[in-house]
Design goal:
This protein is α+β, with helices and mostly antiparallel strands. Helices cover about 20% and strands about 40% of the residues.
């Protein structure tokens, strides 16, 4: 595939189909990037290092910004959609962001994903013992606090949370 004029795009794939979609796109000759991280996983009888997608549900493709290339990507097994902005127009990912991501992936094993958190943003806990709790996030010392406000009492309660366990709502 000709790379002049090509841009990187994020694509959304079916749950746990990142590898399938990546393989399909490779077979079609579409330049693709699926960043993977290794994590130690514990089973009842053993521990093992397992590769996981850095961004579950997403991978990147480099294609010409034209309908025929977009359709070619969308026809790959496991692909749901291109990440789009207003009016369903696919939004390119800046080359610099992909280049920086590739550099970081090549340099370290201790990478973690952090949502774009800002103080005052309403979040939902998606993992761990507080799964399902909602509140507002604030920065406290070296971490984040989930603040739940009980308006009728004029009181709030806060608990430290891991950035990887929460997402903006």
């Amino acid at each position: 595939m000709e790379s002049i004029g090509c841009k990187w795009y994020a694509i959304y794939v079916r749950s746990r189909h990142e590898g399938v979609a990546y393989g399909q796109l490779q077979k079609k000759g579409v330049e693709s990037y699926l960043p993977l991280i290794k994590r130690n996983r514990q089973w009842k009888d053993r521990k093992k290092m397992v590769e996981f997608p850095l961004f579950p549900g997403y991978l990147f493709v480099r294609v010409n910004p034209c309908p025929s290339d977009f359709v070619n990507v969308l026809k790959a097994r496991g692909v749901v959609s291109l990440v789009s902005g207003e009016q369903g127009v696919p939004v390119p990912v800046p080359d610099g962001e992909i280049d920086s991501l590739k550099l970081m992936m090549g340099k370290g094993d201790d990478l973690d994903i952090y949502p774009a958190l800002r103080e005052g943003v309403r979040v939902m806990v998606r993992r761990g013992p507080l799964n399902g709790a909602a509140g507002v996030i604030i920065k406290k010392e070296d971490g984040y606090m989930l603040i739940v406000n009980i308006e009728i009492l004029g009181r709030s309660i806060g608990v430290k949370v891991s950035a990887e366990d929460i997402e903006a709502v």
